[in-house]
Write a structure and sequence with these properties.
By secondary structure, this protein is α+β, with helices and mostly antiparallel strands. Strands 2, 3, 4, 7 and 8 form a five-stranded antiparallel beta sheet that branches. Strands 1, 5, 6 and 9 form a four-stranded mixed beta sheet that branches. The longest helix has 27 residues.
């Protein structure tokens, strides 16, 4: 009888582990958050920028261009990006020319419909 109880306990543990592991990815997609992005610059130069990434409709798109005044912030209004994913942040200062870098939009510290801040030096 003791052997049977051990087998049942072991089977329950294995089943729980398998089901628990399979359930984890499902929770990652529950409740997609979409955010606007605000870029703040510490530069003494005007920064021109645009984004490329996945929008609220699941399409991979590029945005229009915006400018940030020296040591200012600009919200890229009218464009919504999926939190928990990266966007390509393309930017140009007159002294450096065009550059781009991936920027992660954290899904943990934002809510749906929020404005998410990114910083550039």
């Amino acid at each position: 009888m003791r052997s049977l109880k051990r087998k049942i306990a072991a089977a329950a543990l294995v089943a729980g582990t398998v089901l628990g592991t399979l359930a984890i990815p499902g929770t990652a997609f529950a409740g997609t958050k979409n955010v606007q992005l605000r870029i703040c610059s510490g530069s003494n130069e005007t920064v021109k920028f645009f984004f490329v990434g996945e929008n609220q409709f699941g399409d991979w798109v590029g945005s229009r261009f915006w400018e940030i005044a020296p040591k200012g912030c600009t919200t890229a209004e009218g464009y919504w990006w999926v939190a928990g994913r990266s966007v390509e942040f393309h930017h140009r200062k007159p002294s450096t020319g065009w550059r781009w870098e991936p920027r992660l939009i954290s899904a943990n510290d934002t809510r749906d419909g929020a404005t998410y801040d990114l910083w550039i030096g």
